From TrEMBL, chain A:
Its main location: membrane. Keywords: Cell membrane, Membrane, Transmembrane, Transmembrane helix, Transport. Signal peptide: none annotated. This is Carbohydrate ABC transporter membrane protein 1, CUT1 family. The keyword Transmembrane helix applies.
From TrEMBL, chain B:
It comes from Rubellimicrobium thermophilum DSM 16684. Its main location: membrane. GO terms for biological process: transmembrane transport. The keyword Transport applies. InterPro entries: MetI-like, MetI-like_sf. Residues 82-273 form the ABC transmembrane type-1 domain. This is sn-glycerol-3-phosphate transport system permease protein UgpE. The complex is composed of two ATP-binding proteins (UgpC), two transmembrane proteins (UgpA and UgpE) and a solute-binding protein (UgpB). PANTHER family: ABC TRANSPORTER PERMEASE PROTEIN MG189-RELATED-RELATED, SN-GLYCEROL-3-PHOSPHATE TRANSPORT SYSTEM PERMEASE PROTEIN UGPE. The gene is ugpE. SUPFAM superfamilies: MetI-like (SSF161098). Keywords: Cell inner membrane, Cell membrane, Membrane, Transmembrane, Transmembrane helix, Transport. GO terms for cellular component: plasma membrane. Belongs to the binding-protein-dependent transport system permease family. The lineage of its organism: Bacteria, Pseudomonadati, Pseudomonadota, Alphaproteobacteria, Rhodobacterales.
Amino acid sequence: MMRRSLRPQAEGYMLLLPALVVYLIFAFYPMIDVIRQSFSEWNGLDAQSRFVGWNNYRVVLTQDPVFWGALVNTVLWTLAAITLPNLIAFGLALALNQSLPARGTLRAIFYLPVIIASIAVATIWRWMYDPFFGLFNSLLTEWGMSGWIQDWLGNRKLALWSVFVAHLWSSVGFSMVLFLAGLQGVSQTLIEAARIDGAGRYAVFRHVTLPALGPTITIVLVLSLINSLKAFDIVYGMTGGGPAQSTQMLAMWAYTQAMQLGSFGRGAAVSVILLIITLVIVIPYLRWTLRRSTT
Amino acid sequence: MTLASRFFRQPGSAHLDPILVGLWISLIILAALWIAPFIFIVFTSLKSAAEVMGSSAFSPPADYAWENYSAAWQRGNFTTASFNSIIITAIKVPLGLFLSAMAAYALACVRMRWRKLFFVVVLFGTMIPFQVMLAPIFRQVNAFGLINTYPGIILPYLAFGVPYQVFILHGFFSAVPRELSEAARIDGASHFVIFRRIFLPISLPVLAALFILDFVATWNEFAMALVILQDSDMWTLPLGLMAFQSQFQSNYGQLNAAIVMTVLPAVIVYLIFQRYFVAGLVSGAVKE
């Protein structure tokens, strides 16, 4: 049989190629290249970088005064970010799945912070935390609770959690929408049947709703975990890692080492460590997603 | 009461449920807390410096200091910043969506060698936050001599936007019945024609959802712009806002006006296209 056009496979490659090439050059390659960079030193100005073996890792792991603190903060932040906002989001989704008036408006309100630029979220909260005229301290003064007044972002023990509250505000809506979507998939007939059979509110939740939400819960947990690693903008905008590195985190420390302190090699080493942590969590999820999308 | 006859009931029950009434009241209170920062920001943006310091946080502005907006616009150089944001978003969002749709079609509907491998490689990109490797991205863009240029920011935006969009569109295209494209192929249509005439039109609702999600994400992006757009003439609105915050931090009225102006476009888009937002998120993450 004669073909007047290209072979179908060639057409497929032509459709795939533009996106694939851009992706490979500007996203995939830097991901691989960062490994090479972590074994060399470059100050951002010289023409050539210099091979230094494991030296960057040695310096980062043993001599860097900030790295371990940043690692601990990253772990604490991540643990908090996958539990607290998601519990609130789950509660909101369950509540907003009931027959209540103004449901749509309420959902829209809880989702609204999600679409605010994270740097604007940082600016908004930094202003609310302002020690002199910010919202929190003004309200505390007005309510006669001056004893509670804090320098929310200036106190080393408090700053990380002050930033976290801003993150919570801006991320609850995202998980809530995912949970709501999952709840739509729970069969109403099944719930009514369980009710008629005399199951109470808790029994229905425990034995009908919760099992049906299994995949949704996995997705929300992984997405909020990836999101928590993205917590760069909000820290950069609110504290810049301070005071005294008490809100420093790995993604930002990698950036600071390379782009501000001019040590691309050490920055790359921090990036690689963070990438490995990410991959350990993400690869099982990737396989799970693949299995789901092929069935 | 009509309200009580329609709401506050458990499925299949005819009785008013007091627990649901209590739940609703607490939801209203929480929603008020959730939206309070916005009210505070808008009020402050309309207060003079003296009023910010003198009045209560949630008291409405006594007389509207609209000049905060014009002053912030000028001092923050927002004309340039909005122009850059508009150019970058207007090129990146449609182009990215088009490239992703083509690639997703190829991966879902064309029998090719290495198809599975390509799909895994692209899917991998959805899981890696680029915030983890800002400096390597800077180095790559720098190697092409594209720092401080529009292509220099648009290309990495495209690269990191492709995986998620391909993933979602791949799921959508895979669900389209085979017969549809096979019939067209027997009639002699090429894959380009099938893609443009059949698959693009039927995927319009998904494309609309992705378009809006991507518009907001691109408009709001900060970290990548921070490392690539270093010249203040190239800054986008988020960078402009950040610079404004560090320079004029104690000029509260103007700072809040700057926040409102940065945030407003995304809020308006969200309020208009609310439906699509949820559809876009959901089609990707849960239903797929």
